[in-house]
Each structure stands twice: as structure tokens, then as C-alpha cells.
Amino acid sequence: MTVKKMMRIIPGLMVTISAILGLIHSPWWFALTLFVGINLTQSGFTDFCPLEKILRKLGFPEQ
């Protein structure tokens, strides 16, 4: 898996899981959905994403 693919998979899973947990368990899980959305938005404007840095440090290949 490359960093680019993981940058799509991880936020997608986080949004999906938090939405399901928000519907089933507690509405507070929607805060995680909001956090992921805000992070993706700021990443689009600034080209800075903490997840990308973490994945690179973990040794995921660029391409």
C-alpha cells in the first residue's frame, strides 16, 4: 500500500465507523466525523496532513 492509497482508505474508514457508531451507540461519535472532515478541508487548502507524515515515518512507500 502506498501513502496515497492509505490517505484515502483511513479517513474513509474513520468516517464510516464513526457514523455507524454515532447512529448506534452515541451521537458524540459524530465529533470524530467532524474532526476528519475539518482535517481533510484544511489539508486541501494547506497541503499539510498529519496522517501523511505519520504514514511516511512508518515506512509506507510514496509510489
Automatic annotation (TrEMBL):
<protein>
    <recommendedName>
        <fullName>Inner membrane protein YgaP-like transmembrane domain-containing protein</fullName>
    </recommendedName>
</protein>
<feature type="transmembrane region" description="Helical">
    <location>
        <begin position="12"/>
        <end position="38"/>
    </location>
</feature>
<keyword id="KW-0812">Transmembrane</keyword>
<feature type="domain" description="Inner membrane protein YgaP-like transmembrane">
    <location>
        <begin position="3"/>
        <end position="56"/>
    </location>
</feature>
<dbReference type="Pfam" id="PF11127">
    <property type="entry name" value="YgaP-like_TM"/>
</dbReference>
<keyword id="KW-1133">Transmembrane helix</keyword>
<dbReference type="InterPro" id="IPR021309">
    <property type="entry name" value="YgaP-like_TM"/>
</dbReference>
<keyword id="KW-0472">Membrane</keyword>
